[in-house]
# Entry
Amino acid sequence: MEILYYLQGWLAEHPVTSSILEYLLWIIAIIVVISFLRRLLKRKLPDASVRYKAQKGVEILGYLMVILLSISYFTGNIQDFTLAIGLLTAGVTITLQELILSIAGSFYIFLVKVYQPGDRIELNGIKGDVIDIDSIYTTLMEIGEWVSSDNYSGRIVKISNAFVFKGPIYNYSQDFPFVWDEFNLPIKYGSDLELAKSLVVAIASETLSPYVAESVAQWEQVVKKYYIEDARVAPSLAITMTDNWAEFNLRYIVDYKKRRHTKNLLHEAIGAAIRKTEGKVSLASVTLEIVDLPTVRVGEGNPLS
# Structure
């Protein structure tokens, strides 16, 4: 008891030291509580992602409490404290702007329905299928990169939701889950161009008829919803006469997930139909024709001429 009385008297005689000790005790208490909460969350939350975010949130809260406690102890004035709180809030906003934008982006994605799981999008230059959306990240199954066409690369990519405010978002499936595609066929001069044209148009119409039928109704809804003119969804063929061949450009509409498969079907069917014409229609290729060669005479002791 005497020691306790002595400490109380000594602290009363040294108010600065007393204040510092009290400040340190509060800091220690905050650290102990934060450590306890982190261990508790680690045991209670089975999901690794949620556990990590919750622990980080508690850690940030602890830092804020320490900062506020420090300001209140060392200013001692409510007006200075209010100013410090304002400066602290501004500093936290600047420091955590990416996190704040990500959280705001998640609300924007869900409320405006920019995209949803299952959509194929391109965001921040990365294309893929959306497989998850949380409060901070959008997770994509990546498409492209070192593989051709619309095939999965096998990489899972996490993109900050903040990017919905920073650039364009390409959605391949929302409102109108079809895309236009095209390819060129070089037809050799001397072929029956009318026969070639009828073959390509017939095969395209037969192969693509399911997509055309489905896309017509959905395109009507797009025209009603947006300020956009009507467009042709049936396959179209344009012919361009080049120096080397007659170039057939086939343009058509297709399901956004079946672009590569559909192009393969068209190539196979058109190739088979051309072979059945027995030479009436032929595909062209790049060839070199030598028109004339200069005469070369080699004489003894004379240079080449």
Q: What stands out?
A: The mean pLDDT is 78. The chain has three domains: 2-95, 113-171, 178-276. DSSP finds seven helices and eight strands in the chain. The longest strand covers residues 178-187.
